[in-house]
Amino acid sequence: MKKVIIIGFLGVIAYYLLSAFASVPFGADLIKGVKDFYLDKSPNDLKVANVVTSIVVNFRGFDTLGEVTVLFLASTALGSILYRRRSHDSGLNPQRTAPEASALVQTGAKVIFPFTIMLGAYIFIHGHLTPGGGFQGGAIIATGFLLMLVSYRKFFIEHNALTWIEAIAGSTFVILGLLGLVYANNHNFLENFLPAGKLNDLLSGGIIGIIYVAVGFKVGAEITGILDTLLTVKETGLDPEEN
Amino acid sequence: MQEFLTYGIYGTAFFLMLLGLYAALVKKNLVKIVIGLSVLDSGLHLLFVAVGYISNGTAPIFSPAVVGKNVVMVDPVPQALVLTAIVIGFGVTAVALALVVRLYRKHNTTNIDEIKNLKW
Questions:
Q1: Which residues on adjacent β-strands are paired with residue A96?
Q2: What is the pTM of this model?
Q3: To pair with B79 at 20 to 30 A between CA atoms, which of A19, A83, B57, B60?
Q4: CA distance B11 to A227
Q5: What are the extents of the domains in chain B?
């Protein structure tokens, strides 16, 4: 009975969504306005080849700062939700609940791991030239760490190092924004104050490339921290089968 | 062809969104509810990118192959917004899963019907 009501309710939603979007033909150039401004400004003034990157980091840079903050909050919240008080008579003894992977997976993970990190670094360094950027590169780096975490029971991540990487990368973002307030032409937060360079050069786009490298480090460290928190139980005397 | 694409692609996006909503409303397992929310997210992202598509448009990247040529580019704004939405969706999923882990530790089940003290 409940399912019937819910399917009817979803059918009503589907009908109105489809009838609304029937007037929006697929592939039509309907949204006039900011698109042409971005497509003109990004290669000509900012010298950034990837327009999506220039929107994310420059035109909507403040939004991206908030986005990075949301990720930071998520990883902090995860730590505080999953926190368990350890027993007072013994030290911290992190444990992984998953069983040990086979030798094949372990060797393969060891071979692939450095190349995964390299691919992630390539993607966030070339974020303003090719598809991708800080978030994507950071996610790829975290995938490499996830591979190591599920392969080796004894592979632990130093959370202090992650905290330092996050702190340095986050402050780089904010400090570059504040420097824009002082040195840029219009004195705006996160405005470009470095020379723009030549289109499709690696060192082009001013602060955009630097900010995306910082975002890549930060996102990589945060996602790695989240995965490690979810996979590792930091408590002594805990039965691994319990959860 | 135009009709087919309009209804096919928007229809797929709506199907994913409603499928996710259905899972979130009907399923009893908390992990399945979180998966439903992720599917809802994916449908929404597909819809966003589909709205920004322009017929015969290329990716909005001024690589050496397209500089100086008169090419049509798709709308970059929805793509930038979807990038934001994916990251926020990741954060939401991570925190939701952490809450599920916490509930499982307390009640030893992920079935919401068996967690009695949530009801009033």
A1: A232
A2: 0.86
A3: A19
A4: 34
A5: 2-118
CATH number of B2-118: 1.10.287.3510
- Best of A2, A3, A26, A71 to disrupt the B interface by mutation (most B CBs within 10 Å)? A26
pLDDT at A235 over 60: no
How confident is the model over A30-52, as pLDDT tens digits? Answer: 777 788 888 888 888 888 889 99
Binary contact (B55, A42; C-beta < 8 A): no
- Closest CB from A25, A82, A131 relative to B2: A25
Averaged over A189-202, what is the pLDDT? 85
**CA atoms of B110 and A80, how far apart (whole Å):** 20
Q: How far apart are CA A221 and CA A175, in angstroms?
A: 19
- Burial letters B81-93, b for 16+ CB under 10 A, else e: bbbbbbbbbbbbb
Residue with tokens 């392969």: A151
- Where do we find the tokens 């100086």? B68
